[in-house]
Inverse folding.
């Protein structure tokens, strides 16, 4: 006889007393909105809040990214070309170093999470466990 998922009985419901009415209501303090804000239309108030939060302003890294040209102009002399090469290489080395540091941190975190997966000693003999940890005897 096969059991179908539809035939499985439901778990019995948890029955408990109803919550007291005082715990359901949320009470707010008095309205502290200034009169100047009350006089604004919803759209004007929204614009005022957005301006105070600076939502439409560019962040510092966005401004610096826009100030840099994506394509560098062709150098006019060998000295300029060498200088540009050194700048590009310095930038690449810095980015590679950042990637290596991130990879090292991630591998350390992963290694820490693998400790729990290591096989535990299967013996109850303390001497045998100590011997496996110490390695072969020195002669």
């Amino acid at each position: 006889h096969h059991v179908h998922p539809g035939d499985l009985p439901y778990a019995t419901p948890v029955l408990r007393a109803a919550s007291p009415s005082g715990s359901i209501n949320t009470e707010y303090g008095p309205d502290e909105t200034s009169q100047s804000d009350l006089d604004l239309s919803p759209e004007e108030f929204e614009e005022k809040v957005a301006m105070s939060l600076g939502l439409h302003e560019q962040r510092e890294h966005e401004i610096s990214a826009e100030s840099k040209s994506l394509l560098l102009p062709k150098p006019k002399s060998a000295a300029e070309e060498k200088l540009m090469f050194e700048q590009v290489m310095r930038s690449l080395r810095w980015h590679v170093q950042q990637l290596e540091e991130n990879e090292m941190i991630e591998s350390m975190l992963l290694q820490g999470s693998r400790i729990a997966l290591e096989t535990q000693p299967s013996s109850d003999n303390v001497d045998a466990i100590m011997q496996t940890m110490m390695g072969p005897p020195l002669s």
Summary: The first helix runs from residue 21 to 24. The helical segments are 21-24, 35-38, 42-53, 60-67, 78-114, 126-134. The chain has a mean pLDDT of 81.
